[in-house]
Amino acid sequence: MTRSASSHARFVSLSASPCRKGNRANLPAAFAKITYDSAYLKLYYPAEFYCALLNNWPMGFYPPAVIIGDARRHGIPVLPIDVNRSRSACTVEGRSVRIGYRYVRGIGETDYEAIDVAAEAGPFQSLHDFCRRTRLGKDAVANLIDVGAFDSLGLPRRQLLWQLPEALKAARDDEIAGLVVVSRNPPLHEPTPIEEARADYHVLGLPASHHVMEFYRARLDEMRVLTCVELSELPHGSWVRVAGVVICRQAPGTARGHVFLTIEDETALGNVIIRPKVYAEYRLTIRHQLVLIVEGRLQNQDGSVSVLAKRVDSLNPEFTEGLFVRSFR
C-alpha cells in the first residue's frame, strides 16, 4: 500500500467512528470529512446544498438571509413563495431553490400540511379556490399575499387583500368559485419595491426579492461608501468606508476587549475589527444598531480582508424588523 493510500485509509477509518472512546484524534478527522463533504456538495450540487441548509435551519452560524445571499452570489437563484409551486419545505427547481411555506410567519405545521394536501388536487385557480381548499385563517393568507405568493394568478396584491374577507366568507359557506361575486375594487396602488422588501423581512425573515442595502446604494455612493466586494480590490492600509447589515457580533473573552463584527451588503460579507477604545466610544451604536457604516483602515493580506474600525455610525434604515443578529461572548 502506498503512503497516500495508507493515509487515506486512516482518514476514512478515523472519520467513520469519531466518538471512539479515548481517541481524541478522531474528532479533527470527523470535522475534516464534514468540511470536505460540504465543499463537494456546494461545488457539484449547489442548489441541493443550499436547499438542505434552509430546510435544516436553525443550525450553524448564519441565518437564512445570509444563506440566500451566498446562494445568489454563487449563481443559484432563490425563488419566492408561489402557491402553485411552493411546498412546506424549500424545494429545488432545476438550478434554483424555491422558498417553502415553513418560512412564512403565521403558518404552522397543520397549515402547510393542509396546503400540500390541497395542492395534490391540482393548481389553485383563484384566491377563493385557495381559501376553500386549504381553510387557512385570515392572517396566514394575508401574509402569503404580502410576500407575493399569489402573484402568478395575475391579480395585484392590494386587490387580493381587498378581496380576502369575501373570499374567506365564501370559502366558509362552501360557495363554488365561479359563482362568487367580488365587490368592485377601489383604486389601489401597487406596493413599491421597498414595501415588498419590508414585507419579505417581516413575514419571512429573509430577502426573497431585494436585499435591504440595495435601497441605500445610491445614497452610499454619494457618501463614497464602498461595497464589501470592492474591499478586496484595494491595497492594504487604504482608508475605507463600508456599510452593511450586522450579521454577527463576537466578543471572545480571550480577545482582550476586541469586538468582531460580520456585516453583509448586497455584494458580499465583510469583517470588522473594533479595538477596545473604539468600542467604548461607539458602544451603544455597535450594540443596538442593525445597519452600520464603518470607517477605518483596510487590512488586506494573504487573502484575508477586514476593516480596522476607527468610527462607527448607524445608517438608520427605514425598516429593521426581520433582520437577525447573533451575538457571542
SSE topology:
Blueprint: H1 3-16, H2 26-44, H3 46-55, H4 64-73, E1 78-79, E2 91-93, E3 96-98, H5 109-119, H6 127-134, H7 138-146, H8 157-172, H9 193-204, H10 217-222, H11 228-231, E4 239-250, E5 259-264, E6 269-274, H12 276-281, H13 283-288, E7 291-301, E8 304-314, E9 326-328
Parallel strand pairs: 1-3, 4-9, 6-8
Antiparallel strand pairs: 2-3, 4-5, 4-7, 5-6, 7-8
Helix pairs in contact: 1-2, 2-3, 3-4, 6-8, 7-8
Shape: globular
Strand order of the largest sheet: 4-5-6-8-7
**In what range is the share of β-strand residues?**
15-25%
CATH architecture name of the largest domain: Orthogonal Bundle
Number of domains: 2
Q: What is the element string, with H for helices and E for strands?
A: HHHHEEEHHHHHHHEEEHHEEE
Can you walk through the features of this model?
The structure is a single chain. This protein is α/β, with parallel strands linked by helices and 329 residues long. The protein folds into two domains: 49-204, DNA polymerase, domain 1 (Orthogonal Bundle); 212-328, Beta Barrel (OB fold (Dihydrolipoamide Acetyltransferase, E2P)). The protein is 40% helix and 17% strand. It has a five-stranded mixed β-barrel with strand order 4-5-6-8-7. The chain has a three-stranded mixed beta sheet with strand order 1-3-2. Helix 6 packs across helix 8 (157-172).
